[in-house]
Write a structure and sequence with these properties.
about 190 residues; Cobalt-precorrin-4 Transmethylase, domain 1; Methyltransferase, Cobalt-precorrin-4 Transmethylase, Domain 2; 2 domains; five-stranded parallel β-sheet; 10 strands; about 25% helix; elongated
Length: about 190
């Protein structure tokens, strides 16, 4: 199979992704991923809800993954003989939007997971002096991150980037004392020293 990153929002497909999607004999993906790639799909597209059985799909199938498949995406399901095509990630988009250089950036995902391990990683990486990129959880977002920063006596800018690439895209920054609040569930967070 070929796992193709369709980007974090509209208009963020790479040329390599477009070519793979356009020549695919069959495409599978979430409803959102299919919509992001719709203009380039020339075959049957099948929405799937559970990605745990990807290995049962045809070997020449193209599987769409939102963002980049190798960060909190479907790339983790790739086998040795599968191909993975990168996509524009929320990491890239957020760092570009807020002018954050990525070489001192720790990437954390709490999205769809128990937030306790993400909190532990956050504390560890902040202790190492890193800036943070995070895909938050419902119960571990800007307010909870601000609380961790306050506990650690770290002054930083907290940025959230919502609905990247869509007409209602929103990018806001705040402080530890007044963290920005998300209005969408589809957002990422940066902690910048």
């Amino acid at each position: 199979m070929i796992i193709v990153g369709v980007g974090v929002g509209p208009g963020m497909l790479t040329q390599e992704a477009i070519e793979a999607i356009s020549s695919a004999p069959v495409v599978y993906g979430s409803k959102r991923a299919i919509e992001l790639a719709r203009d380039h799909i020339k075959c049957e597209a099948h929405p799937i809800k559970s990605f745990k059985n990807l290995h049962l799909l045809p070997a020449d199938a193209v599987i769409l993954s939102t963002g980049d498949p190798m960060f909190s995406g479907l790339g983790k399901f790739a086998g040795e003989n599968d191909r993975v095509i990168t996509g524009v990630s929320s990491i890239q988009a957020a760092c570009a939007r807020f002018h954050v250089e990525m070489s001192n950036l720790a990437m954390i995902t709490a999205h769809g997971r128990d937030p306790a391990p993400a909190r532990e990683v956050l504390v560890r990486e902040l202790g190492l002096g890193k800036n943070i990129f995070m895909l938050p959880a419902d119960s571990f977002g800007p307010v909870e991150v601000a609380e961790v920063l306050e506990e650690m006596d770290i002054d930083a800018r907290i940025c959230i980037y919502e609905d990247i690439g869509y007409s209602d895209e929103r990018a806001v920054s705040g402080t530890v004392q007044e963290p920005p609040l998300n209005v969408s569930d589809m957002y990422c967070l940066l902690v910048v020293r």
